[in-house]
Amino acid sequence: MRLPVRLVAAATGLALVAAPTIAGDLAFVTCQNGDGLSLLDLDAGTQISRWSVPGKPAGVAVAGADVFTVAPDSKTVRRHAAVTGKVTAEIQLEGGPIGIAHDRVRGRLFVSDWYNARIWVLAEHDLAHLGDLPTGAAPAGLALSDDGRFLASADRDANQVSIFDADNLTLHRRIDVGSRPFGLRFAPDGRLFVANVGSNDVTVIGPQMDKTVATFAVGERPYGVAFAQGRAFVTNQYADTVSVVDTSTFQTIATLPSGEYPEGIDTSTDNQSIIVANWFDNSVTIFDAVTLSVIKEIETCDGPRAFGEFVQRDFK
Predict the structure, then answer these.
(1) pLDDT in tens, 147-165
(2) What is the pLDDT of residue 7?
(3) pTM over 0.70
(4) Could you give the CA distance from residue 244 to residue 314 in angstroms, rounded to a whole number?
(5) By mean pLDDT, which of 16-25, 136-145, 179-188, 250-259 is the weakest?
(6) Is 15 within 8 Å of 34 (Cβ atoms)?
(7) For the segment 247-275, what is each residue's pLDDT rounded down to a tens digit?
(8) CB-based contact 247:258 (threshold 8 Å)
(9) For residues 243 and 251, is the Cβ–Cβ distance under 8 A?
(10) Which of 69, 164, 197, 316 is the most buried (most CB within 10 A)?
(11) 3-state secondary structure the chain
């Protein structure tokens, strides 16, 4: 599957480079145009190294000493060592792999298949194919609840979310949302926030995953969602902004200018910062989640997508 690609030259000269020991948050930012991944020290505001990841990588999941990437063009899922980027396992999946989520408790990986309305279930250690879960048309983002109870899939062309019991992998429910859901994430209180790129809003599903409890408007073409300080932060691709919304009242607190075409978004592990990948600017912007000011901007490789949970804490 070929996703939209910015018409700029791809970055060259990516290489595996051993990183020094870091005490603090690291970010692993997939760069689709540049066939690479930027490893960032968020506290220092520096790029430590770049990895070569062929096949236009988009999806990413960080899991302890491992980083998993999804490259749609080569249909390849890879497991990398988190310091060096060395590939320790890989598998080619016939279809359209894009989104990814990691189940730490059960040692499984979930990968969405855009073309075939399913989720692949893989073993985290060797990426062996364990089975499939049926979804609606064009599943994109995947998310696992913090308590490990639910797995959710944003089924873009079905305008719905498929929710599974993550333990026994049975379908729990399918719930209609806005138009063309793409990115989604569970809030700390268990509610699910779904970014609908077609209707420019976010659907909120209750913690029991049984019904919609709210819908609120954001900017044009919302892509990803993250949480900090009792707020939801939503990247708006076409508006070049991040919407900041109170998770209790669903009122917009602020609209923050970001880099051009913001996509992936994640939270620092101290809940103080929000990290945004700007696809067209080849950068990451770090916002203070309390003051909503910009803390740092860090250069990345070409076309950062960072589609998934890409921040890792205190890796040694």
Answers:
(1) 999 999 999 999 999 999 9
(2) 26
(3) yes
(4) 27
(5) 16-25
(6) no
(7) 999 999 999 999 999 999 999 999 999 99
(8) no
(9) no
(10) 69
(11) CCCCCCCCCCCCCCCCCCCCCCCCEEEEEEECCCCEEEEEECCCCEEEEEEECCCCCCEEEEECCEEEEEECCCCEEEEEECCCCCEEEEEECCCCEEEEEEECCCCEEEEEECCCCEEEEEECCCCCEEEEEECCCCEEEEEECCCCCEEEEEEHHHCEEEEEECCCCEEEEEEECCCCEEEEEECCCCCEEEEECCCCEEEEECCCCCCEEEEEECCCCEEEEEEECCEEEEEECCCCEEEEEECCCCCEEEEEECCCCEEEEEECCCCCEEEEEEHHHCEEEEEECCCCCEEEEEECCCCECCEEECEEECCC
Which two three-digit tokens encode residue 174?
Answer: 């399918």
Given a cut of 60, is residue 8 above it in pLDDT? no
Q: How far apart are CA 254 and CA 271, in angstroms?
A: 18
Let me know: does 224 contact 218? Beta carbons within 8 Å.
Answer: no
Q: Give the rounded percent of residues in the chain with a pLDDT score beyond 70.
A: 91
Residue 72 confidence (pLDDT) = 97
Burial of 98 (0-12, 13-18, 19+ CB in 10 A): buried
The gap from C-alpha 119 to its chain's centroid, in whole angstroms, comes to 16
pLDDT tens readout for residues 29-84:
999 999 999 999 999 999 999 999 999 999 999 998 999 999 999 999 999 999 89
In 3D, which of 80, 33, 32 has the Cα closest to residue 312? 80
